[in-house]
Every structure is written in C-alpha cells, then in structure tokens.
Amino acid sequence: MSSPSAAADPTALRACWHPVSFSAAVAGAPVAVDLLGERLVVWRDSSGAANVHSDLCIHRGTALSLGRIEGDELICPYHAWRYEKGGACVAIPQLAEPTKVPAKARIQRFASQERYGLVWVALDEPRWELPALPELDSPAWELVFCGPYTWLAESSRQVENFTDFGHFPWVHPGLLGDPERPVVPEHTVRTEEHVLHYEIVRPEAPNSGDFPVFANETSELPLRRSRYELHLPYTIALRLGWGGEEGMVYLFTSQPAGPERSIGYVVTGRNYNLEQPASVLQDFEDVIFGQDQVVVESQRPEIVPFDLADELHLKFDAVAVAYRRAMRGQGLAPQT
Ligand code: FES
Ligand SMILES: [Fe+2]
Question: Ligand 1, atom 3: nearest CA belongs to which residue?
Fold first, then answer.
C-alpha cells in the first residue's frame, strides 16, 4: 500500500459508531466481521439482541464465529467453552466441575446497537450519536436496502466518492449526470462540529427507462434538491426532494474493515413508488456502485490524503476540502 502523508487515525476511529452488517444478515449463526483491522463476531441471543465480541477464543485463539449459539451462550467450535453475552466464560467441559471457570477466561465485548436495519459497533466509548433519520422509522416511508458493496479502498475514499459532484456526467452518464452539463452547481459547506452540511439544486438526468427510481416523471428535466449531512467519519444522510411531497432519504455508511477494504451499505426510505419492487432500486444502485468501484479502486493512495497540500483541489471540490479539514480538526486524521 502506498502511504499518504496523513492517513485516517485508527485509534481515534475506534471511538465512533461504524456499521458492520445489515441486521437481517445476523440470524441463527454467529457472523464474522472486520472493523478497523479487528476480527469481531456478531451473534443474537435468545432475546433477539445482537452481541459483539472479539472473534478470538481466550483458550487457543480459535474463531468463535465458527462455533454455535445455544440460548444466551456462544460456544467455541474447538473445545466447546461457553461464553455469555457479557463475555465471561461460564463453562469449560474439560473440567470435572465445568462451571468452576478461572476469572481470566473471558472475551472482549464491544458496544453495539441496531438502527436503520444495520448493526453498529464502537470499539471504544463513542464520541457522537448516530444521525437522526426519523423518516426511516416512519411507517409512511418504505425502506429498501442496497449492498453491501465491498471495495478495495479505505472508507474515506468510498465516502468522498459519494460526496463528489464532478464525476456524475462521466462515471454515471444518463443515470446521475449528463456530459452536456458538466459544470458543478454552486454549493457551500457549513461544518458544525463533526457534521458537514451542504446542498445542491440541479436539473437532473431524466429517469432512464431501465431504472425509473426518482419521483420526477411529471415534467421535463425537473429540479432535484439534494440536502446532505456528512457525519464524520463515514456516514452520509442525503434527503432528495423535487419541490413536492415526494421525498427520498438515503443513508450511506461505510464500514472501515481495514486499511484497504471498505464495505458500503445503503438504506433508502421513500414515500412514493411504494408498490415498486425493491429490486428496481437495488439494481440501479448495483450499477452505480459498480461504475464507481472501478474508478475508486484505482486511486492511490488507497486512503484519502488528508493533508490539503496533497492532490489538487478546485472550487467545486469544496466538500472534499471541508471533509479533509474536518477529519483533521476532529482528530480523526493526524495533524502533520
Ligand atoms: S480454543 Fe476455544 S475452547 Fe479451546
Ligand atoms: Fe458515483
């Protein structure tokens, strides 16, 4: 991997919420996930709650995600030591008295929560709450889940791509942009603590025949207003509107699996097109993310270089500039 002058700081990133899985993907068996280079196990206890632990049995370092769940206990596949959700080992079958367990026999437990159809984990005490998206909790809005999208690039590249307006006509012609209109509309970024706010209004590319996913059938080249909140480090809440009641909320969040691997999750909510099968939007996002992946995986370094002296920024790159400043300002990327 090439090394940027100022890379994201893995220690500071531990104190942030990160997605590790869609909730629906965690069912009857333990699931292994990677976060900031650590292997974790996610599993549901008998109440249905998700628990997250280090995926490493204290006995011989076996992956607990290869084991099984019985009631409220996670059982190692190697010698069947049993762990409760707090992380304590509660039974060692090889002992004459299996419940006489030494105090040191425990695994690390991490804070987790489920929200918007995702399991979120913080490896250290989290500094900030998750973004508030009441639409995604409302019965009037229908949710569609897209992804996960695993890319060989660090999460900062995956997120910055999502904030990049200049590429729409070139990477997504006919779907998100029009090569006849490459000029990026004026926009300014307001940074409040760890959240960047910005919005853009532009005529949008018409719905394509293949993907009628936007609420814009009624007029020629309607104006689409997109309001963004970028919550450091890797979560974006986007609200789309066309001037009427119809709206779409788009949550994009990236799991920093490791220094060269990110996993993107999309949760959309919409209050129109409710009968449209989820697959229409999912197929559309699969195409968009596939187009982006090729470009982003080619970027070097694989991590956004947070020093503004690296790479070349023009006025229409205002979001990338603000993102790099804010990541450093909040201590999520080192000051060099
Ligand atoms: S390695 Fe897990 S019980 Fe022995
Ligand atoms: Fe894109």
Answer: 79
C-beta separation of 20 from 50 below 8 A? no
Answer whether 63 contacts ligand 1 (Cβ < 6 A): no
Q: Which of 53, 56, 60 to mutate to test the pocket of ligand 1 (most atoms within 8 A of CB)?
A: 60
Domains along the chain with CATH numbers: 26-122 (2.102.10.10), 134-329 (3.90.380.10)
The Cα 336–Cα 332 span in angstroms is 12
pLDDT in tens, 233-266: 999 999 999 888 899 999 999 999 998 999 999 9
Largest CA distance in the chain: 78
Q: What is the pLDDT of residues 184-243, one digit of tens each?
A: 989 999 999 999 999 998 775 555 556 667 765 555 667 889 999 999 999 999 999 988
Ligand 1 centre distance from Cα of residue 75 (Å): 9
Question: What mean pLDDT do residues 36-42 have?
Answer: 97
3-class secondary-structure state, position 286: helix
Residue 217 vs residues 187, 203, 212, 256: alpha-carbon distances, Å = 26, 13, 8, 37
How far apart (Å, rounded) are the C-alpha atoms in residues 152 and 134?
32
Break the chain down into helix, strand, coil percent, rounded to 5. Answer: 20, 35, 50
Report the predicted TM-score, pTM, of the whole model to 2 decimal places.
0.94
Contact (Cβ atoms closer than 8 angstroms) between residue 26 and residue 42? yes
Alpha helices in 131-242 (DSSP H): 155-163, 168-171
**One-letter amino acid identity for 69?**
I
